């Protein structure tokens, strides 16, 4: 068996793969000329979010039996082309959901208590206790757009903080109980936007969600509200977001993902009310070990003719 890993994987995952066969691993392989020859005899390919898996890619790997995705977002994989080619795709279902939920808390607390700013101020010799008398998360409303693996984990944590929770997710199964148990009121998108103090996006990027948050939807938000995007850059229209932030229509944004990464030249880089991070919400040591082990195990299962619970349906 030949397994080609085109992007970063943790050693714990490699160990599992090496037990099954030959592993070709190069974190930068996705952008290298060595990729096409490596794919020629590949039985499995494992990627993160940089490798584009489309018809051309699949044509280079005629013996491919499975694609493994070290993560959750599948927007870099043409699922229809994989299905047509009979190649199942396994992904790291929920392996980094806790890390993303904790990132959202870091962002909300950063907006509500501003410890970094207060530290800089104290280091300048100041002692501005009134300036840094800020707000609690307790009693504030958190709006979840997409209430799946990450959304529900965030809700569990928000509940412990005493937050009020609203959710918008038109694809929740009927009679679902998780949201009810968690205390998330499922309602319409406009309601979530207009009633929330913090809005957090947890939808996949696809034709329905591209530009979901645009000028019109931003205008529904409360003037003091914050938006947090750990989903995908294209879900928010960045030019509309820039206008809303610059004019004070909304109070701030935390963006872990951008339509172009890195966002060279984006005007958002110049705003003070934006937190920008390099797509790290799901990147913690724990989540990466979990992801690497899960995907390696599930890819091995498929290669050995077994079924995987992590196959994309
Ligand atoms: P999930 O599939 O468990 O949940 C997504 C939810 O969105 C589902 O409940 C689905 O019904 C809902 N949804 C789909 N289309 C919608 C729409 N148009 N409007 C409202 N809801 C809609 O996925 P997840 O594990 O919660 O991850 C969500 C996304 O977060 C991923 O697709 C990925 O792009 C992103 N992500 C980013 C990072 C990071 O490091 N920044 C890490 C993990 C995941």
Descriptive key words:
globular; Rossmann fold; five-stranded parallel beta sheet; 313 residues; 12 helices; 12 strands
Structure description:
With 313 residues, this protein is of the alpha/beta class. The chain has two domains: 113 residues, Rossmann fold, CATH 3.40.50.720; 180 residues, NAD(P)-binding Rossmann-like Domain (Rossmann fold), CATH 3.40.50. The chain is 35% helix and 15% strand. The protein is built from twelve helices and twelve strands. A seven-stranded parallel sheet has the order 8-7-6-9-10-11-12, with helices on both faces. The longest helix has 19 residues. The model has no long low-confidence stretch (mean pLDDT 97). The structure holds nicotinamide-adenine-dinucleotide.
Q: CATH architecture of the largest domain, please?
A: 3-Layer(aba) Sandwich
**What's the total helix number?**
12
* CATH fold naming of the largest domain: Rossmann fold
Estimate what percentage of residues fall within beta strands.
15-25%
Along the chain, the helix and strand elements come as: EHEHEHEHEHHEHEHEHEHEHEEH
Decide which structural class fits the backbone: alpha/beta
Ligands bound to this protein structure: nicotinamide-adenine-dinucleotide
CATH homologous superfamily label of the largest domain: NAD(P)-binding Rossmann-like Domain
Share in helix: 25-40%
Shape: globular
